[in-house]
Amino acid sequence: MAAPQTRKFLGRLSLPERTFIANALRAETVGGVLLLVAAVAALLFANTPLKDAYASLRDFSFGPESLHLHLSVASWAKDGLLTVFFFVAGIELKRELVAGELRDPKAAALPVIAAVCGMAVPALCYVIVNASGGGDLSGWAVPTATDIAFALAVLAVIGTSLPSALRAFLLTLAVVDDLFAILIIAVFFTTAINFMALGLSFAGLAVFWLLHRKGIRGWYVHLPLAVVIWALMHASGVHATVAGVAMGLMLRCTVRDGERHSPAEHIEHLVRPLSAGLAVPLFAFFAAGVTVSGGALGDVFTRPEPLGVVLGLVLGKTVGVFGGSWLAARFTRAELNEDLEWADVFAVASLAGIGFTVSLLIGELAFPEDPALADEVKAAVLVGSLIAAVLAATLLKIRDVKYRRLVAEEERDDDHDGIPDIYELDNPEYHLRMAAILEAKAAEHRRRAEVAGGGSGKDDSPA
After folding, report:
1. Is the CB of residue 301 less than 8 Å from the CB of residue 310?
2. Could you say which of 1.20.1530.10, 1.10.10.10, 3.40.50.880, 3.40.640.10 is the CATH number of the domain covering 15-189+239-403?
């Protein structure tokens, strides 16, 4: 009997998975650029003579009061448009659970542990700083989130020659991160619950699932139902974005006979441009408009609440994601791709410190009674994300240069015959290069064996 085939995390991806990740990277890269433009525009509006007009637009309220939907423009962006973002995140999570890395427990161990540690360590950093400095512990969850759009945009721009496995790792990590972030919002930032509205919202979700299961696909049915589910979830007191994740998880991600694409893939293809191109940038425009002055920037590094956020994003995220990845590889059956090095994982771990969209959202939810402190925490999110982006870009550039050299060596063609020299067996340099490559891999194998053996120095490599 043939041994069952096992999946290795960060191993070679199937063609459908590679296609999906490539498409997601393209969309998220554009979304990251739009997100950056929106954030910069918000900062400019909030710190120029146009700040009064900006504040008036942000605070302008409209909507039916009887349905508890008389909200400001900023609240509509936070509770309404951001639901679209979490709807797409729910679809991504479902795809990973059904057809991606997360479907295999062994392969899922590494990104799940890395994501959990990447949220726990930043929260711990915040708690330590504020407990010792007499700060408000309510913002512990602010530095736990990773902004996938910004992170993938930086990775796509800087790491052009990096292995695709790193992009897959970051994407999977961010999907798990989004799941835990929405759980944190639902559990810790829900104050009073209207059980009648919550029950009706769950009933609406059941109808949504039943219609989808029966093959009813018309947007004219699902869109009004989705709006009703969202409104009921908002009225219940649970954050309305939970409805978006729930509906995304209910979509089918498998392809049946006669289908070119699964319903989830088709809907995501239609909704993702709305999320990346409109919903998230508009939320950033109304959430990132904080007044930045010398005193405010000074408070970021002197007051415990914003300082905890900065340290959590820059230090906590890096240590948490990298440490979690190492622990998973050391104490579970999860393995790191033999073509990668831990320096690559460390660079991506620092990239996870870009916690923009969801961190800004949690910052607003954590300090509803203290707008001034909420603005300082928002400024800390911007500063921490900027520092993490610069640090990650530097590390990724160093790694990218190394991989670019390897690519150039593989494509070397000194005799200009159209065939890379490394593939020409009669080329004496071929044997020298192959010997050097094999020796390097053997040395790496011995080093990993020593680490796995607790530094005993024993050589476990085959004779």
Report:
1. yes
2. 1.20.1530.10
Range of lowest pLDDT (5-9, 62-66, 172-176): 5-9
Q: Take residue 89 and report the two structure tokens written for it.
A: 């995140």
- Has residue 142 got a pLDDT over 70? yes
AA identity, residue 388: A
State which amino acid sits at residue 300: V
CA-to-CA distance for 360 and 375, rounded, in angstroms?
Answer: 10
- Start-to-end CA span in the chain (Å): 28
Give 173 or 199, the one with higher predicted confidence.
199
State the Cα–Cα distance between residues 427 and 438, nearest whole angstrom: 17
Give the DSSP letter of residue 62: E
The three-point CA angle 221-78-86 to 5° equals 55
Higher pLDDT, 460 or 391: 391
Cα–Cα distance for residue pair 457/444, rounded to 1 Å? 13
Residue 69, pLDDT score:
84
Q: What is the pLDDT of residue 295?
A: 64
Residue 279 exposed, middle or buried by CB count within 10 Å (0-12, 13-18, 19+): buried
